[in-house]
Amino acid sequence: MMSGPPSAPEWFLERELQVLGLFRDHRRRLRFLASSRCPADGGLLGAACKLPDGLWVWIAGSRMSPSASWDEFRSQYLDMLDESDWTDDTYEQAGEYADEQLREWGGRLQWDPAVMKVQLPASDDEQIMTWDRHSPQPRPGLTTHRTVTCGCRTHYMLPVLALVYAGIRVATGLARPGTWVRPVTFRPPDLPRQPREPGEDIYSVAPDGRFVIDLHER
After folding, report:
1. pLDDT tier at 100 (50, 70, 90 boundaries)?
2. pLDDT score, position 207
3. Is residue 199 part of a domain?
4. Which of 48, 37, 25 has its CA nearest to residue 130?
């Protein structure tokens, strides 16, 4: 008996692997409608591209340092509790939780590059619909930013919503191809990059009032 056509989720996962391979192996041949690159070395952080089956957006992966990963897991544990309930035992338990999670993640938090398909809206009033591996069926809305890491080990917040919107504008003829979307740096380049002590907070406020997230390698 012949099997029927693959379901929508199976089709998407298969196509997702194809598009990931296309960006990995042939990105120099692709014509980007919009892209975001590392200001330091030009490394690609995200891109919107028109393929035969529609608009696709590629997002670079992310790789946090072991110390930053430990801080993130510890913060996750503490965030589950009310601050008024924090005690010395709580901090110890948070550290143990971070140690356990780090072992499961292989020593650091990291995410592979990802792609998502974007449905072009028929009008400005229509919601942006996207597909990704977590939602093979189209759904409205998308994340505004995502953490990405350049090959030079610099961390950025990729403006995903701005990148998608720029790609849509080019695809619908409202802008010219080649739109550049500026990534958001975690740490202002003029601040000293001193090593952090274990457990030191990665969040701080710069002298000019900007919120700083320090994820540099120790």
Report:
1. very high
2. 55
3. no
4. 48
Flag whether pLDDT at 187 surpasses 70: no
In a domain? residue 16: yes
Sign of CA dihedral 215, 74, 211, 48: positive
The three-state secondary structure class of 20 is helix
Q: How many CA atoms lie within 13 A of 1 on its CB side?
A: 3
pLDDT at 119: 87
Q: Is the pLDDT of residue 191 over 60?
A: no
Q: Is residue 155 domain-resident? A: yes
Q: What is the spatial distance between Cα 132 and Cα 138, in angstroms, rounded to a whole number?
A: 8
From the number of C-beta atoms within 10 Å of its C-beta (0-12, 13-18, 19+), residue 6 rates as exposed
Please give the residue range of the domain that contains residue 37.
1-64+109-185
Question: Does a structural domain hold residue 130?
Answer: yes
Q: State the total domains in the chain.
A: 1
- Unique residue bearing structure tokens 């012949």: 2
DSSP structure class, residue 83: G
**What's the rounded Cα separation, in Å, for the pair 112 and 147?**
11
pLDDT digits (tens, 9 = 90+) for 132-173: 877 767 888 788 888 899 988 888 889 999 999 999 999 988
